[in-house]
Amino acid sequence: MLCLVFLPSLQAGNGTITLIHMGDIHGHLVPRPNMRYGEATTQYQVGGLAYLYSAIKKIRATQPNNLLINTGDTIQGSAEALFSRGQVIVDILNEFDIDVFAPGNWDFLYGTERFIELFAGNKPKANWNALAANLYYVTLYEFPLSPYPEKAGQRVLPSHVIKQVGDVKVGIIGLTAERGPQAVSPFIMDGFYLSPGEEELAEAIPLLRNKNNVDLIILISERGLAANLDIAERIPGIDIILSSDMHEETREILQTKNGTLLIEEGQDGTMLGEITLTVTDKKISNWAWKPHFINTRDHQADPVIQAMVKKARYPFIKGPGFVPHVNPINAALLRTPIDTIIGYTKVPLHRSNFSDAPTEPAVIEGSSHNFLSDAFRLACNADVGVIRGFRYGTHIAPGPIHLEDIYHYIPIGPQIACGKISGDNLYLAAEKSADDVLSRWVANWGGGWLVGFSGITYTLDPSNEYRVRVSNMRINGELLDTARMYTVAGYWYLDNSNKINGIIAQNIKVLKDRYGGIVDATEVVAYYLQSLPSKTVDPQTNRVRLLNPLPKPIGSSKEIQPLRGAPRPNY
Q: Scanning 72, 115, 122, 482, which has the fewest C-beta atoms within 10 Å of its C-beta?
């Protein structure tokens, strides 16, 4: 009699698995408006952790073989997150039962010691199972004064994890961004080293596939959708990538030429991804994709999470529970409840349009940045106001502006300073910013959109190369004089005390209150609103005029930054 013996370790685990994907929460606890061109509505609001969790519970109820995955930039982006150093977000998301997490660059905002406390070690405060194959403690050769000498050269977090979900054995690799939060202190990443992650990924894939015999390989990566697309094309073997960083919404799944699937979920918890994969003989044989747009019209708030959100906000909003808070970045004191109305706007304030918007298109411009740079310029009575080109931040509908709205735009503790910068350096800043978002090569991208200016207008040719994209640059209507020193107002940090918004400046004066105390940038914006007629802002638009259209997007995801990147086939 012939006896056949099947070794379990060599058998393929055929079955289905549902991935529930969230990312780029950026500290948003409660719903906000959606003012994006083509989607703007005041009938309902979007996002909110209680509404997000309600949608997660519904998916779990119908798809028991599931994993909930969070791909980073979670504990930064709001006043509540800032003043608690991320703790209020951690406490709430600990109730979500997150299966695995890839930290984002802004999850390092509160320093390496706090990062370890939240995500590393035997008992991290965040129970999210953090992974990052490309995050290390620096070696003593690189940094002899490392605060972690006994761990020099070791990984801070595990590189991967294996999960058995139903009949499917899943290998999950984590990558964090290869840059820390660049706008803040250089000491934030003290003792850590970030690699690009490509070598680690190329090593982990055969390990999981051949030695651990997994049926499915998932990469969770906070490197951005287009950068993840690039890495998937060059390093085969990844079945699906769940992405964060650029806040793109993949309303249809992208698929590379070698079959890898890619998904990203926008920002602020306004979108939740559900993808059910059928795995046959260690390959994805079929998939069903469903994006869930989280809003107060189609979803109900989960009562448990809603109560936690209310408790978290209690010390920050009007009422008997409000207490002053010390800013952990710059030591400024929050004396005003964050739900206080500080002014009004005639127009929607945000920076999130698609690339085909007729005004303020993606990557180029946003009404919120115009408004904020105007506030900095007038506070200093300067020639120019400048603000870094970030993409996070809330949407404000025409009407009241609350203090917490400004903290969503400026949750990183800068002060505002005035100083002298040459016209040549202002031109170079505009060119460098354009290359950071419009370079054909993914590795050149800086992780943001164009720097926002007040007092400066210019024309931009996105089809040109570095140093020849920007032309006709004018300051308050006059052609730029490259040899002249202009007064500039913008972000200032003590650890970069010779720079304004990252640009070397002279004669720097930091704004203080009447008693010489520290003033956070949010307070500068509040003072600006108080100075306006009827406390109402209506920022000028079209400060950047495009000479040629932006590059076409990849597939149906029309906001991929910078929309095409390096030459590649059409998908």
A: 122
